[in-house]
Structure formats: C-alpha cells, structure tokens
Amino acid sequence: MKLLFKYLFLVMLMHTSCTEKQAFFIGEVEYSYTYDRKQPVMDSLMQLKSQKSVFRFDNNNYQSKFIGQDTFTFFYAGALNKCISETNSKKDYTCEDYAVATDSIISFSMHDTDEKVLGHRCKIIEFQSKLFWTRYFVSTDLKIAPGTYQKHVAYNWKFCNEKTEGGLILKLEHRFENYTMKGIITSVIQQGNDFHALQLDEKTIAAICSKNN
C-alpha cells in the first residue's frame, strides 16, 4: 500500500511539473526603442517614432500601446480575429481583419544563442519579408498562448509565433529602407489567470468592427 501511494505521488508530481511547464505567459511587458538612421531623415520624422510600448497578454487576446509623440493603442480579440486601434485615446476606432495578410515572408532562419535578456534564455529568428528585415530574440521559457496568434495572419504574427512556439519577444531589430528600429524588453510582470489583456470588452470590439464594415 505504501508503495502504491508513493507511485501515485510521483505520478501527480510529474503531472504538476508538466502542467507548469506548459503554462502560457499572462501579464504585462514593456519595451524601449531606439532608432539608427541609414540615410538622412528629418529629425522631426524620427521624433514621431515610439520610444516605448506596453503589451498585455492573456490566453486569447493582446493589447499593445506604442508611446511617443503620438500614442497608438491596439486591441486584438483572438476569438474574433479582429483588432481595433485608436490614436491618443480619442476613441476614434478603426477596425482591421487580421485574417488578411499584410506582408509575405521571403526567407527565414533560426539560431541558438547563449545571450540572456532579463535573465531569460533566448533563441533567434531572422526573416526577410517583402517590407523589411527582422531579427527577434525570443524567450525559450516565456510563451504566449496559441489563441493570440493561430488565426493572426496579419503582420507575420502567425508565422513568427508558430516557428518560435509562441516565444515572447525579448529583443528585436527591424531594418527599413531609411532607418533601423531596435527594441528591448525592460519589464516583465506575470499575472494570474483572471488577468484580462483587453481594457475594452469583446462585445465593444465586435460592435465597432460591425459598424466599420
């Protein structure tokens, strides 16, 4: 009987361990950004670029706020596969269907690295799309839930997250024609399962998208 209880205890322990490893990241992260100019670009144009951003994730949705001279906020509802955006909190929402591709991948590669960001191990994905070149350092332990990217074709989100198994982006580099944007995560705040990424409810998002259509 003692042997049976010991066996059951080990099975439960293994199950709990596996469950914890498979848990997805829920919470809020912040990034800071810098820009390198490859060609002469007006300083006033560069000042318009976002200096930081705040992302909020739960198991189905995400909210991203890019903060600069103007602030742009995006509310993505995974079940709807729709995103509404606003500028400077003016509530002049526009809706976009994220089932529609906005770019295409030309080539990609993945690499291992010993680099850590905020103590988290990384792997690297690089890809050339039709619009720009990108390098992401993604976490090997912090994973965002598939509900936030399985149908998210727009902006290469589905492609990137499927290749990296949902690894949270820790560091990034986007190379455009006239400048390079670099970003790094500066804060990671994990929350419980009752955390809601969206500060608008899905009914509101659905209603706004219905009106826009």
Describe, in short, the structure shown.
With 213 residues, this protein is of the alpha+beta class. Helix content is 21%, strand content 45%.
Task: Enumerate how many helices there are, as a single number.
Answer: 4
Average pLDDT metric: 88
Radius of gyration over all CA atoms, rounded: 20 Å
The multimeric state of the shown protein is single chain
Percent of sequence in beta strands:
35-45%
For the termini, the CA-CA separation is: 66 Å
Low-confidence stretches: 2-21
Biggest beta sheet summary: 11 strands, antiparallel
Secondary-structure content class? alpha+beta
Approximate helicity band: 10-25%
Task: Give the ordered list of helices and strands.
Answer: HEHEEEEEEEEHEEH
Mind explaining what this structure looks like?
This protein is an alpha+beta fold and 213 residues long. It has helices at residues 2-22, 43-47, 157-163, 202-212, and strands at residues 27-37, 52-57, 61-67, 72-77, 82-87, 94-97, 105-117, 120-129, 133-143, 167-175, 179-190. An 11-stranded antiparallel sheet has the order 6-5-4-3-2-1-11-10-9-8-7. It is globular, with a radius of gyration of 20 Å. The protein starts with a helix and ends with a helix.
Key features of this structure:
21% helix, alpha+beta, 213 residues
